[in-house]
Amino acid sequence: MRYRPYGKSGQVVSAVSLLLDGGVRHSAREWRNQVSAALDLGINGFEIAGESPALIEGASEALAGVERELLFIIWRPRMLPAEPGHAIEAFLARTGLGYLDLLSFDSAPPSADVLQRLRNTRWVRSYGLTSDDEDTDLLITHGGFDALTTCYSPVSGWRDRNRLKAAAERGMAVVARDIWPEALHPKAVMFKMPLLGRKRNPLAGMVGGYNFLESTPGWSSEEICLAYVLTEPAVTTVRFEIDRLDRLERLASVPDRDLPTGIAAQIEMARFSADGLRIGARA
Length: 283
What we know:
The protein is of the alpha/beta class. It has a single domain (about 5-180, about 230-260), classed as NADP-dependent oxidoreductase domain (TIM Barrel). It contains 9 helices and 12 strands. The strands form 3 sheets. Strands 3-4-5-6-7-8-9-12 form an 8-stranded parallel β-barrel. The longest helix has 20 residues, at about 265-280.
């Protein structure tokens, strides 16, 4: 596993990080096994979404055996009160983590005054946004946040790329998510033509096409997407939600591999064609 610097803090986070979503019905044992497997693969970045008792119990047990300074822990609460201090303190007490490396908001973030009061405590080291809308772009422009969790993939257009650029220019770390969009899944890109009854790939008509994602020896489509996103200098870590341990092992090995020669150019050609089609559709 390779590690990347988190902003200017001196901390490092694994190139691949794990999303632990409390909305998924796992037992504490299942959460513990998932976190332990990730740790064994060198993953030190974990995003805890929500406040599920089973998740907190299982993750806390697995993380307890690791020196706290070696971990990078993100908490993304489902909802925080206007004055979130007590909720953060309670979460830290339940997990035994001591502090959060990043507190991320996926809804309306607290006011600048509340953030400043939180910064005066020792509970949270940095604050971030998890979003991709125009309001997020405005918040990035105004400053005040340390990190951005956002969608980024080989099919991302100019708006997503400009968002990454704006965040990087303001010194924000970037957590990439949804790097393997459904449009690039082998089964999702096939559809039935209504008259001829033939199947075709709707992406195949673009310059270069995306067919190479399924025909590169030794690489799956998802692995190519991950390797490509990791070539973006603004990206600090790529966040995944894992359903199978064998998939976790495959993705954890990607940061140590080089993207095959010519793949990045093919992605850019296909993306350029896709951008042209989108622009033409809006005209």
